[in-house]
Amino acid sequence: MKILVLGMGLMGPTIAKDCSEDPMVTKVTGCDIDKKKLDEAKKYVNNKKFDIEVLSVLDHDKVVKKMKDYDLVIHGTSARFSINALKAAMEAKVNIVDLAGGGYPQDGPLYDEVEKSGITAMPGCGVDPGLIDVLSGTAIMTMDQAESVMFACGGLPVEPEPPLDYKIVFGGTRMPVRPGLVPMIDEGKQVQMERYSEVEPIDVDGLDPMEAFTDGYPSSLLKLGIERGVKSFRGKTIRYSGFVEKIKFLDDLGLISEDPVDYEGTKVIPRELFHKIIYPLVKFDTDEGDRDLTVLLVRVEGIKDGKEVVIEYDMVDFYDEENGITSMAKTTGYSAALMARMLGRGAVKKKGIQWPVRVIQGPLVEELLSKLRERGVEVTETVTTTREV
Predict the structure, then answer these.
(1) What angle, rounded to 10 degrees, do the helices at 363-374 and 131-142 form?
(2) Is residue 152 located within the same domain as residue 81?
(3) What pTM did the predictor assign?
(4) Residue 33 lies in a domain
């Protein structure tokens, strides 16, 4: 199996290293527009199967030509380039896995186009989206009737620092600050809810108090919930306590608005300026001693065989000091690498756009959790059944 990895940022090197160490994989190539990142990845992966090449995902013809030499592509650059990578994969006739989910639509003509091209595209194969969808979907489909679904995930610095007690642990230079409406399910119907609403406390032993708030985007998991008649569906993000209050304060002041304002004759978008100003304070830098953790929670309640059942999944993961891998790279990168190789070996056979929640099921879920456990990422499952007395 020959694998092409697009993007050698935070996740790409971990994906490339994991794939290179698989006996079934004969070659892995990492591509990026940044030669420095490529050189660092080459040193980190340290495997004779791995090589690097400067390549832009926006250079369609070159990307297509490159893809044709591989059995599988893993796209790990920004979600805004997801469809560019997909279009190239369709032309090259090669299967593709994408870490991002937001770059793909939930329906529309693209689904027919991808299926007709004869390839399989699996988007949303990281931790959230990705692992959290697979776990939530597994719980939903285990039950005769799932009544409520709540899942939450967050990547955080181990040592929170003011002003926001947050750092960008997933890479890039922009915080995920985006007030607005998000789709959820309430009383059995899809509704639009305010992001940063329904704040609830999250307690993890040994860590500072946290909170979870409504967050998200249209997803395959939401679509599954509607199909299965789920009455309540909440997707949330986890941050340290007080985060929402700070973000709402900034929003009230208009400092994270996307509406342009006039400053001495120049149109300025407040949110763009905010990102520029705040980045030095929220930059995550392992060389400076920053360490991260990832918290994942899933709780699905419903009925199975006439009894009330609650299925919960919990994960608290930390920076790997021994191997120098961030928690976000582990939980996202390993999940993507493992699901990608499932597709690469033919365990996922359906063509077209196939979301993990639809095709990573049964034995593949057990395999995914087992392989993550081998890599130090431990997910705990708890099933509680209320029996009639």
Answers:
(1) 140
(2) no
(3) 0.94
(4) yes
- CATH number of 250's domain: 3.30.360.10
CATH of the domain at 43: 3.40.50.720
Tell me the CA distances in angstroms from 191 to 111, 200, 234, 248, 322, one per residue in order: 25, 20, 11, 22, 45
Boundaries of domain holding 300? 131-318
What is the three-class DSSP state of 383?
strand
User: Could you say which DSSP state residue 333 is in?
Assistant: I
108 and 26 fall within a common domain? yes
Structure-token match 């990492």, residue found: 30
Q: How far apart are CA 73 and CA 95, in angstroms?
A: 6
- Helix 82-92 / helix 109-117 crossing angle, nearest 10 deg: 30
Q: Are residues 172 and 248 in the same domain?
A: yes
The secondary structure of the chain in percent helix, strand, coil, rounded to multiples of 5, reads 35, 30, 35
Nearest to 234 by CA among 248, 251, 215: 215
| Listed residue (256, 291, 278) closest to 169, CA to CA | 291
Same domain, 197 and 256: yes
HSE, side-chain direction, 13 A CA sphere, residue 12: 30
Number of domains in the chain: 2
Are 227 and 92 in the same domain?
Answer: no
pLDDT tens, residue order, the chain (389 aa)? 999 999 999 899 999 999 999 999 999 999 999 999 999 999 999 999 999 999 999 999 999 999 999 999 999 998 999 999 999 999 999 999 999 887 899 999 999 999 999 999 999 999 999 999 999 999 999 999 999 999 999 999 999 999 999 999 988 888 889 899 999 999 999 999 999 999 999 998 889 999 999 998 778 999 999 999 999 999 999 999 999 999 999 999 999 999 999 999 999 999 999 999 999 999 999 999 999 999 999 999 999 999 999 999 999 999 999 989 999 999 999 999 999 999 999 999 999 999 999 999 999 999 999 999 999 999 999 999 987 54
Q: Is residue 178 part of a domain?
A: yes
The Cα–Cα gap between 222 and 228 comes to 10
How far apart, in Å, are the Cα atoms of 294 and each of 153, 198, 271, 366?
7, 21, 26, 21
